[in-house]
What we know:
The protein has helices at 5-13, 34-46, 65-71, 85-95, 162-175, 180-199; strands spanning 22-27, 53-55, 105-111, 116-124, 130-134, 154-158, 207-209. It is α/β, with parallel strands linked by helices. It has a single domain (5-213), classed as Rossmann fold. The strands form two sheets. A five-stranded parallel β-sheet has the order 2-5-1-6-7, with helices on one face. A two-stranded antiparallel sheet has the order 3-4.
Amino acid sequence: MPLTFDDLVHRARALPRDGRRAILGIAGSPGAGKSTLAEHLVRELNGTGDPWVAHVPMDGFHLADAELARLGRRDRKGAPDTFDAAGYAALLARLLDDDHPADTVYAPGFERDLEQPLAGAIPVPASARLIVTEGNYLLLGTGAWQRVRPLLDEVWFCELPEPERLRRLIARHEEFGKTPEEAAAWVERSDQRNAELVAATRDGADLVVPESAVPRVRT
Length: 219
């Protein structure tokens, strides 16, 4: 039978065991629906009770534009070396550390309107037993990214037909201020190279999530 969103909810709910915290990673190419799936999962699992699931996106570890300019990488924003991969891995390791069970851990967020990371934007309370994290490079096996996969209990890979993924990605860039021409050029120049790199990591996932299993809300 086809995989459904309810199947994903049940699978995610079962990840924390024996009271320990678990981390679910959601990977996929830009525009594949990672954030949409993560947001729906967190909302469904938390329901109307006390929140026990937290959403910690990888995007908070984007390097700031000023640092990208200093490094000469501003025109490649979104590539693997434009993130603080070591910092991201360190945060995941800290989230799994139960030596200080009463502590709230603060994670960085990403402000889409400014296209900049925002320090300390996401509180992860001690009550959170499942962390849902999502991003392009969770399965990348090079550099500091290779520290990420061992920290994740499972990784799911969002897969979307290429024409629809590109349509959504261009629409997202337009939503945040690019003209249609600028959006299409950025996708062709930058996002597509990153997408090809991410697609090559697909076989490392525990589960491939088709478009039909992801509720539609946003591009």
